[in-house]
Amino acid sequence: xxxxxxxxxxxxxxxxxxxxxxxxxxxxxxxxxxxxxxxxxxxxxxxxxxxxxxxxxxxxxxxxxxxxxxxxxxxxxxxxxxxxxxxxxxxxxxxxxxxxxxxxxxxxxxxxxxxxxxxxxxxxxxxxxxxxxxxxxxxxxxxxxxxxxxxxxxxxxxxxxxxxxxxxxxxxxxxxxxxxxxxxxxxxxxxxxxxxxxxxxxxxxxxxxxxxxxxxxxxxxxxxxxxxxxxxxxxxxxxxxxxxxxxxxxxxxx
Length: 254
Description:
By secondary structure, the chain is of the alpha+beta class.
């Protein structure tokens, strides 16, 4: 069942989303050569706790971090640990917060120092795909319009859309109905209604759309071993259009 949020619930949910966004960008500021993925996770954990919320990834399904920190060919669900970031890496950070019974979830791909032109182009394309998907998240449209926005743009740039993992509804639970695929046909799928809250998250890869899970049972990597990128916002569908709930406060990204 899809949960439609009223204005009071959306206001409460935005508070959780703002903490999630601030934590994500605090983690992003910590990205640098020589930093471990565990150190980035610690920054995110501390930010969320210091702002009175709970890291909603920590312990979820047994996950051991407060954020997923995925490097280069790692698409999603990277377990924070001893891996040291190097100049030229790209790192996707995915994390969220729960506050007063509501969840926020967001992700971004950050450059470690100066990256290659192909890495920068992949990051830009995935970010633009997210922007186009959000623009399609309007009342009266269909879920396929969101997926088509991602797929058509990414594929026009020569990239591949991962199909095994998708976005999701979010609210009182971190993962709610409906699923939000990054592929689809315009005008198909469930109708988008005001009050829906969606975690829209393009996951784009070079070389292939195929992925595999490492022996740790969590980390999802590009089957071709090439670069991947992941961007995500929590978005509310309103009568006047999509509203991004995880836009970070200005001070968070300075």
